[in-house]
Design a protein that fits this description.
With 483 residues, this protein is α+β, with helices and mostly antiparallel strands. It is built from 16 helices and seven strands. It folds into three domains: 182 residues, Arp2/3 complex 21 kDa subunit ARPC3, CATH 1.10.1760; 119 residues; 169 residues, Reverse transcriptase/Diguanylate cyclase domain (Alpha-Beta Plaits). The structure holds guanosine-5'-triphosphate.
Length: 483
């Protein structure tokens, strides 16, 4: 589920360094401001979204992973501190801890994407979880050391608080940043589409009403439902919102995880880790669902096309006809059944490899003559079908003759030799009436099959059709004679 498959933001560009600088400064300042506003008195911020957001930005746009762009983000943090609070060694160290988180996550994610060139996968959920863990440990270590020093009694509580906040916020925010796209709103939104979100809201309300340690896991089934129903970006966003709401509710004792006692720092530590662990589950499910869907798309694409000739397979033709059903304009359909004459002699005289090459070249020549509007399918062996919307049977017949003569004169080259083929064609032609396209096609195929038999019986290399029982007047010598 690459974010590039969907519409993406163009806030940054490889070729606009000035815009990138402005973007980094604006985002750093904005999220520093938001984090500072969420800061509890004398404590760490309830959320510090800056690191997760900037890590996501740097990881998403690999070309931003340059020393000068990191430096700009760092300087923006220092300037913010200098303007609003203090400027000094503590500010330098704490902001360095922010950068440690940002750089660790972004470098690890971009490294992953570099290694998987063929199918870039922006969210490998489990890896991301580990990267946030590592980055949060590093960030908390530098931050706590810079703030109180290793010998202070408050070092470990501060470290734990710092780590749990960074880890949970990172796990919630980074997947969002890596997958976010401009939302596409469904026109025909039905109530059942909203049910997973409704279930999510109900489960969060249940967490508040029931409380206790288990309450934090209540939204998990609803989040997994979202993961199965919605896109990966939507799942990441809903997971982020749910996690952020839960942390806020726990911190304010609205979700009461310690029913009989007051909320303590270790409880908050545990709650944050619990929420982060929960948050990774729907992302993992969503990634798996996206991977399965992509696999299904690939498999059905393979089933729709004949691998040797690259025209439709029999089943692919039926799928294409179903799609055509919705947009058919013409009321008249022509179905041709084409069978290469004496193809067995090609295999016998030149080998199967030559036969395969000629089948592929034959199919491409037919497709080229029919044009993009006609459907060409390999029905099996050396038998092909062509379906076109023609204004009349005469027009369909004329096209069949064009195909036949273009094949007759086409020089197939095999290992320096020029070989010629001929094809016999049977035509079925008629109006839709009230029937579906598939019904008409099946009827016309039977007719085409009957007329193909007549073409073969009459000597091959000809087109036969119902129009006045016409058969081509020209008789060609047999292909085996020509080869
Ligand atoms: N190389 C190759 N040959 C194939 C393939 N599928 C079918 N054939 C061959 O196509 C030949 C069809 O032979 P027949 O059904 O006797 O028909 P024909 O020799 O074309 O004679 P007519 O149709 O009566 O003019 C057989 O020799 C098959 O082995 C394929 O995918 N590759």
């Amino acid at each position: 589920m690459s974010p590039n498959q969907a519409r993406t933001f163009t806030l940054f560009s490889e070729h606009t360094p000035l815009r990138n600088v402005v973007g980094i400064v604006v985002l750093t300042t904005l999220f520093y401001f938001i984090g500072a506003k969420l800061r509890l008195v004398e404590e760490l911020s309830l959320f510090w979204p800056l690191n997760g957001v900037m890590a996501g930005v740097f990881a998403r746009y690999a070309y931003l992973n340059r020393l000068h762009y990191y430096a700009i983000s760092y300087i923006a943090m220092l300037v913010y501190d200098a303007i609003t609070t203090d400027w000094g060694i503590v500010s330098l160290t704490i902001n360095l801890s922010n950068m440690a988180f940002i750089i660790t996550v972004s470098l690890l994610v971009t490294r992953d994407n570099r290694l998987k060139k063929e199918t870039p996968d922006p969210v490998n959920a489990l890896r991301l979880f580990n990267y946030c863990l590592l980055a949060a440990l590093l960030c908390a270590l530098i931050g706590a050391l810079g703030s109180v020093g290793l010998t202070s009694q408050s070092f470990w509580p501060l470290f734990a608080d710092w780590f749990s906040e960074q880890f949970s916020t990172g796990v919630l925010i980074v997947p969002c940043l890596l997958t976010i796209t401009i939302p596409r709103f469904e026109r025909n939104l039905r109530l059942e589409h909203l049910m997973p979100v409704v279930a999510l809201v109900v489960s969060v309300v249940a967490s508040v009403v029931i409380g206790g340690a288990g309450a934090l896991a209540f939204p998990l089934p609803a989040l997994i439902w979202c993961a199965v129903r919605y896109s990966l970006p939507a799942t990441c966003l809903l997971t982020f919102v749910t996690g952020a709401v839960e942390i806020t509710l726990v911190a304010n004792s609205v979700i009461n995880i310690a029913a009989t006692t007051a909320l303590t720092t270790p409880m908050m530590f545990s709650a944050r880790l619990g929420i982060a662990t929960m948050a990774i589950c729907p992302v993992m499910v969503s990634v798996s669902v996206a991977a399965i869907n992509s696999l299904i798309r690939q498999v059905s694409l393979r089933a729709d096309f004949d691998f040797l000739t690259h025209v439709y397979s029999r089943s692919g033709l039926y799928e294409a006809l179903k799609r055509e059903e919705c947009q058919r304009k013409n009321r008249h359909l022509t179905v041709m059944l084409l069978d290469i004459d004496y193809f067995k002699s090609i295999n016998d005289n030149y080998g199967h490899e030559c036969g395969d090459k000629m089948l592929a070249a034959f199919a491409q020549k037919v497709q080229e003559t029919v044009g993009a509007d006609g459907l060409v399918a390999r029905m099996g062996g050396e038998e092909f079908a062509v379906v076109v919307s023609c204004a009349s049977t005469q027009q369909g017949y004329a096209l069949a003759e064009r195909i036949r003569t273009s094949i007759e004169h086409y020089p197939f080259i095999w290992r320096g030799q020029t070989l010629f083929l001929t094809v016999s064609i049977g035509l079925g032609s008629g109006h839709y009436g009230s029937s579906t396209l598939i019904e008409v096609f099946n009827r016309l195929m039977t007719e085409a099959d009957e007329y193909l038999y007549r073409s073969k019986k009459a000597g091959r290399n000809r087109t036969s059709a119902r129009i006045a029982e016409v058969t081509t007047s020209e008789r060609a010598s047999s292909p085996t004679e020509q080869l």
